[in-house]
Design a protein that fits this description.
Distance between the termini: 67 Å
CATH class of one domain: Mainly Alpha
CATH topology of one domain: Cytochrome p450-Terp, domain 2
Structural class: mainly alpha
Strand content: under 5%
Strand order of the largest sheet: 1-2-3
Number of helices: 12
CATH architecture of one domain: Orthogonal Bundle
Shape: flat
Oligomer: single chain
CATH superfamily of one domain: Cytochrome P450-Terp, domain 2
Order of helices and strands: EEEHHHHHHHHHHHH
Largest sheet: 3 strands, antiparallel
Radius of gyration: 22 Å
Length: 267
């Protein structure tokens, strides 16, 4: 260490014969002793999660890992097609697509629910009727502002997202069905009164609610979604190597491209 210089950290440090992480000896205390999900939680919160918290957190990671040929998966596959020498580029391409329509809903939903709860100044409802009233007011206010309620609707699961009831059930079993999930469920019950149609509570939204109930910073929730999706994208790239379809995707679009005169688009 250079005399007079100090860069404090509560994460990892290394010496010639030891690596320490979170105040623990990496090889003696962590490797083979904690799961990757448990460690990821610990790295962010600087506290080791309980068994119940780990179960809910890892259920979220599993729920968000892969969802088929989504834009993020397609981006990763096509980037790998173009640059098979750059695995990191293909992974990055998929992760960069995690935004307000895919993956980013996890953070958007958590932030939305958190803001509604903050407006209550700690006076939380005691029953479903109370939660429904809060949810109804929130949905009305959101619609009046011309915005969408994050976590409602899904391009594939039009009636029920199968992840939603399972994650709520796991959180309930572990005693971690907190105010964010309670509010999210209430939104699912009442939104039709305001929007005029019934939409499913989607998996990304329920994951955001569950993560917020774990006390994780809402500003970082998208990061956990990306952490999960990195595993799914690596699987997509591995499958692209085994059974490539990227060239077919590219050729299908390219061979069906039709020139349109710009003047045809003029009003």
């Amino acid at each position: 260490m250079t005399e007079g210089l100090s860069f404090p950290t509560s994460l990892g440090t290394s010496s010639p014969d030891q690596i320490r992480l979170l105040g623990q000896d990496l090889t003696a205390d962590l490797m083979g002793q904690v799961s990757f999900g448990e460690l990821a939680f610990w790295l962010v919160t600087l506290r080791r999660p309980t068994r119940s918290e780990t179960r809910v957190f890892e259920a979220v990671l599993v729920a968000l890992a892969d969802h088929g040929f989504t834009p993020t998966a397609i981006a990763a596959r096509l980037t790998y097609l173009s640059a098979p020498d750059s695995l990191q580029g293909a992974l990055a391409a998929g992760l960069l697509g995690g935004g307000s329509r895919f993956l980013g809903v996890t953070e958007d939903s958590g932030r939305y629910l958190h803001d509604v709860l903050e407006s209550l100044d700690g006076a939380l409802p005691s029953d479903d009727d109370g939660w429904d009233a809060v949810a109804l007011a929130a949905v009305r206010q959101t619609k009046a502002a011309g915005r969408y309620v994050p976590g409602l609707g899904h391009p594939v699961h039009k009636v029920t997202d199968p992840r939603t009831p399972v994650l709520i059930g796991i959180a309930s079993e572990e005693g971690l069905r907190g105010p964010h999930l309670r509010l999210f469920e209430a939104i699912g019950r009442v939104h039709e009164q305001v929007l005029g149609r019934r939409l499913p509570l989607n998996g990304a939204g329920v994951c955001g609610a569950a993560l917020a109930d774990l006390g994780l910073p809402v500003e970082l929730l998208r990061g956990f979604a990306l952490l999960a999706r990195a595993a799914g994208l690596l699987g997509q790239i591995a499958e692209e190597r085994r059974r490539p379809i990227g060239m077919d995707m590219y050729m299908t679009v390219d061979r069906n491209a039709v020139y349109v005169d710009p003047s045809d688009d003029a009003d």
